[in-house]
Amino acid sequence: MKKLRKIKRIFWLLLGGTSMGMGAVGVVLPILPTVPLLLLALFCFARSSAKVENWFRSTKLHKQHLEPFMEKKVMTKRAKITVMASMTVFMGAGFWFMDSVPAGRVILGAVWLFHMIYFTKGVGTVPAQEV
C-alpha cells in the first residue's frame, strides 16, 4: 500500500514536471498552449505533494500566466490567441484523421466551438501591462 502511494506520487510529479516544462516552452513557442499545460502542472503537483504545489505557486511562471486566469478569469490577447490557435490546430488534426467516424467529427466540432465561445466570451481580455 505504501509503495503504491509512492509510485502514484512519483507519477504525478513526473507528469507535472513534464507539463510545466512544455508550458514554459509554450511561453516563447506559440504552438504550445501555455495556460492549459500550466493548469495541468498545478493539478499534478497538487496530487504529488503540498510542498511541490506550494513551490510551483511561488514561481514566476505561475504568477505571470496562471494567477490572472485563476483569480479573475482574464488573459492577455496574445495568450488567448495562442490557446485558440493551438486548440484549432490540434483539434483540426483530430478532425482530419476522423474521416471515417462522423460522430467523432461532430463531437470534436462541438468541443472546438465550445472552446472558442468560452475563450472569446467567458474569459476577459486585459493588456499585457495589467498582468
TrEMBL record:
Organism's domain of life?
Answer: Bacteria
Gene Ontology, cellular component aspect: plasma membrane
Q: What is this protein called?
A: DUF454 domain-containing protein
Organism annotation: Blautia argi
Q: Where are the transmembrane segments?
A: 12-32, 79-97, 103-120
Which PANTHER family does the annotation name?
Answer: INNER MEMBRANE PROTEIN YBAN
Alphabetized UniProt keyword annotations? Membrane, Transmembrane, Transmembrane helix
Query: Record's Pfam families?
Result: DUF454 (PF04304)
